[in-house]
Amino acid sequence: MTLLCVDVGNSHTVLATFDGDRVSGCWRVRTQPRATVDEIQLLWRGLLRDAEVTGVAACSTVPQLLPVLRQLLDRLDVPVTLIGPGVRTGVPLHVDNPREVGADRVVTALAAHELYGRRPDGTGRPVVVVDFGTSTTVDAVGPAGQFLGGALAPGVEVSLDALAARAAQLRSVELTVPAKAIGKNTVAALQSGVVLGFAGLVDGLVDRVAAELMATFGVGPVVVATGGLHPLVVDSCRSVGERDPDLTVQGLRLAHEKHQSAR
Known about the structure:
Blueprint: E1 2-8, E2 12-19, E3 22-30, H1 37-48, E4 53-60, H2 66-74, E5 80-82, H3 103-117, E6 127-132, E7 135-141, E8 147-154, H4 156-166, H5 186-217, E9 222-226, H6 230-233, E10 242-243, H7 247-261
Parallel strand pairs: 1-4, 4-5, 6-9, 9-10
Antiparallel strand pairs: 1-2, 2-3, 6-7, 7-8
């Protein structure tokens, strides 16, 4: 049995296949907001090749692609879970307007709690998820798996592109960890400001979020990094304890299992 999990993000779409709870294949492709249902179906077929998919779980943060995604999922003769408002994931949303929370953040919180927030003795602990994507997201998950909210900041690539576009003498550079914080040329200075600057931003936000969680629950959180850009920044962060590039697709797997078992 092979479950296909699809996370449609603003910049990239991640497709992962699961054999039980193990990722057996993973692909990252650029999100095309104007793609047709036939184009997406051909892309999926090309990536999956001969994989016999027995179920699909998907979410999308791109409103333009939701109707196309629904059309494609309707064509499939397998159990399907499209995460969105009204779909029960088992994650209580302790925020002002639950409908504003992106489906990707919900399923990521689910995976964070199930994989990192449960102690061997059955008790729970808070988790902070740092997602390095189009935006840099720092989310708080309570010890009972409740989504508590978080902080949203621009992503690394978005910030670098904006800086290059607005500053005439600056340009886009290769994103890599600089050897030193004091850059001796424009490229090194940009790399220091972007990579190390975002590491400092993350550490500052995590410190504040962790302090609030400690004050509320009396126990400090485990901090997990995920997202396509996390390998670039996470080594420069002192606050991150765990890394899990598959956290969102793992959340889709768990949500699919909960949704199908509830039927």
